[in-house]
Fold this protein.
Amino acid sequence: MQAKLKDIAQKSGYSITTVSRALAGYNDVNQQTREHIMQIASELGYQPNLPARQLRIQRTHTVGLIIPSYDHVFSNEFFSQLLLGVGDAASLERYDLLISTQVPGEDEMDAYRRMVGGNRVDGMVIARTRQNDPRIEYLKQQKRPFVVNGRRAPGEVSDFPYIDMDSYNGIQAVVAHFASLGHQQIGLILPPENMAFTEYRHQGYRDGLRAAGLDYRPDYVVYGDLLRTGGYSNANLLLDRQPQLTAIVACNDLMALGVMRALQERGLRVGADVAVSGYDDIPAAEYANPPLTTVHTPIYEIGQRLVRMLIALIDDQALDETQILLPGALIVRESSGGQRG
Amino acid sequence: MQAKLKDIAQKSGYSITTVSRALAGYNDVNQQTREHIMQIASELGYQPNLPARQLRIQRTHTVGLIIPSYDHVFSNEFFSQLLLGVGDAASLERYDLLISTQVPGEDEMDAYRRMVGGNRVDGMVIARTRQNDPRIEYLKQQKRPFVVNGRRAPGEVSDFPYIDMDSYNGIQAVVAHFASLGHQQIGLILPPENMAFTEYRHQGYRDGLRAAGLDYRPDYVVYGDLLRTGGYSNANLLLDRQPQLTAIVACNDLMALGVMRALQERGLRVGADVAVSGYDDIPAAEYANPPLTTVHTPIYEIGQRLVRMLIALIDDQALDETQILLPGALIVRESSGGQRG
DNA sequence: TTGTACGCGTTATCAC
DNA sequence: GTGATAACGCGTACAA
């Protein structure tokens, strides 16, 4: 049997109220009384019953995060980093983290309704926004605190707190880098079309080419799936049709690794024959062979900052910044190759 | 304002009791009444208040998992896979997952006391057992359901439900494989000394050598940290002192990737000059250059099965198996090289 | 400084 | 079939 306030009250001779206040640190309780009570509490191994407390104070001290099912497949690295950032920052504020992985068959919104509508969390972290994201509508309508990793697609209004990476800039920097090495035929493997950030990257590519005086060619551009296998198959697709390409910009590191594998199977040297870049800078990028040029994305830090924003919102504190765009840093490694002849 | 039973009761004209029973699917309520009530509930967007329900029925429908702080650093892949397995299986049973990442300063057990003692979860999943693990003692003493990934170290009694991989066998298979290729000087990079599975792997190595008629040499063995950097530095350490080594067995893939990097920096060809193997078979292993020989470990599946075991325990069902040892499968790839001259 | 009384929203027991 | 009523464990206004 678990010890509860009542047990401590009986054993100490004080009322439940006094015990509650003593343990909660109220200063209107006699010092000796408090010590006595705390002594007994620790003897009994007292732990407050959290559901009861939550019901009473209407607060859970918990933030929620739902992992969409399609994320099981790709970008594990992304989610595990985000999760650790979110989890660490939450722990520091003594918040817990409630996770639900959405099961494939189920309506995505059910998980949100249970967590939010069921009062299991004080606020939500949303990741991987898509175009017309229904989760955001729901949370706005419920008037529950939430923060988002990723803004909406270009053209849509992002009227909510978010932290996003400036992937327009990131891809632009990659293209400028390749152009400065003398590349003129630069292919692009985009994320899936319905992801919010896809068009930003597409535009970054376009404008990067223009800034370098190069033409945009639609047949140099394909949509991938953010997986290694997607990089592999799309690189083959691209090279079958456009063998003149000397550089391939992949929109994440996993796809870039797949691209490298495809090149190597074709007997092409990564870097020397075809330059390759990724995006995200996951640990595997540095350890790839050759090491992968990429854009560093501070996912862990984004997770941390998101939670701090969220907790501030929950506590009704004013936020200094509610919409943050983080620049990515270009990391040049050997997969860039050298200056072109 | 959130709709509660009371609101539905008022609007429908029935009592809270009847509303509760109608929504819970009791069959002692009139069919028309039920439909009427369900209609109103959906109009009001009713969602049951979970903390209240939890308090009342003394069940949370939640399983807990605590991520130790040292795991932030290494083996992300391990934890993200485990987490997804746990999360998916939990979702299928309509359980949620409460995560706490232990903050570095805090006493590890505090997180467990809050989760378990605070009645936030019905049971716990424990991962990465260490020698003399205090978490297991605590949960046994609390008489709370729990399942463990990993048994205790050799010599200790594992009197609790677990699923572990048979890493004794796995490493033995690797050594046998290398020996069959003609290797006679085989180095080993172990996990940290205090991890429960370290000694199993050590013994697998020892017995694998003996089975192949090779001598065990303590100076061929070092302890790593399961990180890429640990593999890198330990490979250099090993090769500085024992340049005659022709094969290095690393106890996880990350370290193996670090070993490969060290070899390549020394101008040695992975496979041809020095064979390398890892353990776990994370996705990066297949995509390494050259692809990495390793032992496949079904972490995702282990996570799933652990949760199913745990939920069975919570529901007081009898388990057919409570202690499961899964064999690992040797995956031979190019980092093995070929037959030795 | 301490105690009494009440309510958070739900489910379960019992009577009608 | 349906409805009062109590209880889960806690926090807090108010009174003493």
About this structure: Chain B touches chain A through 54 residues (CB under 8 Å). The longest helix of chain B spans residues 76-92. The domain at 5-56 of chain B is CATH 1.10.260.40 (434 Repressor (Amino-terminal Domain)). The radius of gyration of chain B is 26 Å.
